Amino acid sequence: ASCGDRYIMAQFIVNPKPFLADLVGKVVRVKLKWGHMEYQGTLNSSDSYMNLYLERTEEFVNGQFAGFLGDVLIRCNNILYLKAATDEENAKMETT
Predict the structure, then answer these.
(1) pLDDT tens-digit map of 2-56
(2) What's the angle, vertex CA 64, arms to CA 93 and CA 40, rounded to 5?
C-alpha cells in the first residue's frame, strides 16, 4: 500500500471508548469469536477492559433465536465484533 492508501485507511479507525459510550442505552448485537453465537440486548455499561454488561439479552445461534438470557456479562476477549442493532433487529426485540 502506498502512503496515500495508509492515510485513507487511517481515517476509518474508530476509538472504541467513545464508540461504546455512544451505544450505552441502545440495543446492540455482539458476535462471539467462536461458534455461531450472537447476543442482542441493551448495552448497560462497559468497563476499562471493554467487558460488556447487557440487559434483556437474547441469544441467537446460526441466526435463529435460541432464548432469553436476561442480564449478561460478556468478557472482552470473547468478542469478535459489536454493532448497533439494525432497526429490524431492534423491532424484533421490542415485540418479544
Answers:
(1) 555 555 555 566 778 888 999 999 999 999 998 889 999 999 999 989 999 999 9
(2) 40
Which residue do the cell numbers 471493554 mark?
50
Whether pTM exceeds 0.70: yes
Q: Which amino acid makes up residue 91?
A: A
Phi and psi at 65, nearest 5°, equal: -60, 130
Which grid cell is 1?
Answer: 500500500
Contacts of 54 (CB under 8 A, 6+ apart): 28, 30, 39, 41, 42, 43, 44, 71, 72, 73, 74
Q: Which helix (H) or strand (E) holds 29?
A: strand 27-32
First to last CA, the chain: 48
Among candidates 88, 95, 91, 83, which has minimal Cα distance to 39? 83
Which among 13, 18, 29, 30 is positioned nearest to 78, based on CA atoms?
30
